[in-house]
């Protein structure tokens, strides 16, 4: 059960950082540098699949 909780915690951290990156890119960084905002959005687009993989890591080993 402890491992499952760690996976959930990692999932929430990754998804939270995804939302933070999107929010910062769209509302703050774009005012100063559009290429950096696009880069931040690209990184944020890659994070949800990684978060799902991390959340399900070791789930089939019961």
Automatic annotation (TrEMBL):
Keywords: Membrane, Transmembrane, Transmembrane helix
A family per Pfam: DUF3099
Protein name: DUF3099 family protein
Transmembrane segments: 12-32, 38-58
InterPro entries: DUF3099
Natural source organism: Kribbella rubisoli
